[in-house]
## 1
Amino acid sequence: MLIAEMSNIVKRYGSSRVLDHVDIVIDEGEILGLLGPNGAGKTTLIHSLAGLIKTDSGEIKVFNEELQRNLSTIKSKIGLVTQEVTVFEDLTARENLEFFGGIYGLRGEELKKRVEETLRFVGLMDRAKQLPTKFSGGMKRRLNIACALVHEPKLIIMDEPTVGIDPQSRNHILESIRKLQQNGTTILYTTHYIEEVQAIASRVVVMDQGHVIAEGTVDELVENIQHEEKVQLEVEEGSEELAEQLQKINGVKQVIRNGDRFSIISRTGSGNLDRVLTVAKSTGGVKSINVEKPTLEDVFLTLTGKTLRDREDN
Ligand SMILES: Nc1ncnc2c1ncn2[C@@H]1O[C@H](COP(=O)(O)OP(=O)(O)OP(=O)(O)O)[C@@H](O)[C@H]1O
């Protein structure tokens, strides 16, 4: 069964089309990973789906109902974790959850029960009486997530929930997302950390410049580029000149330079290891060279020409 269906969505800001005829479906019970570089349109898509902004055209159905016509009912069954942490600093963790639970119509014993369950679920039971000002970034994030979970939404939408937090909290969050899925919740998960998608997503949608450019399971996406070879090269002194020379080798599709390291993607069968080595040696010393199997990161690179690591920020 489909939990959400976005068809032919267009959203413009001024003259630029931020979402350009986007089609996305979310199946019940899946964790759909939404990947895309900066400015791809992920947040705009998520905010459209959560009913926070109106699209210019297209149709959005959530729980089989037209979104804008049934906005308040649908919103009450969605949990949105925004990119920015939105908790009240002058309320304790428990009071924050009571507030958000109240907004969603929970009252009395039911509210109390859900607040306690949610605090336990995100591992903040022992911090229930503290103000978030005393929390680490990761704990604040977990509280933020808890606020979106307290009303037991059927669909949870998360916009990069693990950016800028410690590894322990990140693992806790990923583990919690798996548990939510096991309990039957559907999750749309946006991130630029490929390894997170690889770890938890049932299916992946890749966006770039307002378009969906690929979708499938991680295995399916990697399978699509199995016809490519990747040579990893490290030299003593990398230069743009070397990158240009590598790019000229027959069969080379793409060269990505990161300082002294180069990833060279070629068509399969081009046997470019030797040629890459020769070119690299002609410009200086070679530290290491090897052929690697493509990963989801390479799928992303091949599709968008961009690396998600551009914005690695923790
Ligand atoms: N309110 C707005 N007014 C004008 N332009 C906007 C607005 N919101 C987003 N944009 C533009 O739309 C494009 C897509 O932005 P969006 O935030 O959806 O991308 P994103 O994929 O979520 O990127 P990021 O990973 O950086 O959050 C960007 O070029 C952005 O500048």
## 2
Amino acid sequence: MDIMLPEGDPERTGEKVRVQDPGEHPSVTLFREYLRLKTVQPEPNYDVAVRFLERIAAELGLGCQKVEVFPGRVVTIMTWQGTDPQLRSILLNSHTDVVPVFEEHWTHNPFEAFKDSQGNIYARGAQDMKCVSIQYIEAIRRLKAEGKRFPRTVHMTFVPDEEVGGCKGMELFVKRPEFQALNVGFTLDEGLANPTDAFTVFYGEKCVWWIKVKCEGNPGHGSQFIENTAAEKLNRVITSLLQFRESEKQRLKCDEHLTLGDVTSINMTMLSGGVSFNVVPSELSAAFDIRIPPTVNLQAFEEQLTVWCRAAGEGVTYKFYQKYMDQTVTCTEESDPWWKAFSGACRDMHMTLKCEIFPAATDSRFIRAAGHPALGFSPMNHTPVLLHDHNEYLNEQVFLRGIEIYACLLTSLASVPPLPVEG
Ligand SMILES: CSCC[C@H](NC=O)C(=O)O
Ligand SMILES: [Zn+2]
Ligand SMILES: [Zn+2]
């Protein structure tokens, strides 16, 4: 029986008195309870998540620390001390927020964690990434119950605001003394589901560039053939960028060895300008979301952008709204002790791994930029990729296998022998 007394309004927070379904695995019950907490952007209820995590830390006898990196933005840290705490630690990172929903497109309430007859659990965050948070917790619960101890300390961090770019979350946290004090050796963070029998593991991410191109031109009456209008220039800019988009799309399609992480994607995501049907505007703008693989020379790419803008005419300029420049990737060679521990454990479990570059951006980028190796991995095979989508779900058996996978990974990673640098 699992009863919890809510402190806030249960309708708003998702915190409710709940009774354990006798036929359900307790780890699944805990997962569903976490899914019901409304940590949904743009106004996530983080208090309710922090309370939930504090309760679990107490239950498991883990150290629990809260770091408020920005007003109202708390990172919760749970620590399982190793037998050799001087050694560098294993960091298991996850974010607590989830993206908004279009409720009318969902077959079940996205904050009810409905489970169908096949064991599919429908909820926002089922894949991204409340599953992983609970899998970390349940793997540690299991290992502790078995009386296991490992040389390396294991930390779990539960971070706010990943879904809105991490600037009030992980980006600030990695600069704090509390993060330094974690003495991180190796990190696991989120990945993506894989519909096949294989598991995808991400060793790097694309750089996000968000640009707005502004085109200035001659204004005038809408009945005239005005020369050098903003629209003609914007048309050239859009054509150049979308032509490049098409060539990258074809390159991906024609080479079976390439994944989305290996090519540059461009999407025009916003258009703005104009005042009236019969006024030729003096200014029009287009916004582009560009994702660049770590193998691309960023300086050369920016030069190309400049060339396209110059070729579109006078008065065409662009401004960055995001310009991520760090292209650090994590080593996946057998000679690397962390990779050897990770991939060796996967091999022991007869798992097939597919190594890729993450097509979007996660908090791993701040960890890698801070100099720590990180792999993006969510143990969800035989599962369609539904993050940020309607009817996001995860099957309970896949979820439960993930706990076993983490228990095995953690056993291996937290036992990596002292590295030369650790003396
Ligand atoms: C520049 S921060 C954006 C982060 C966001 N992450 C998840 O979707 C993304 O669009 O990839
Ligand atoms: Zn995520
Ligand atoms: Zn996400």
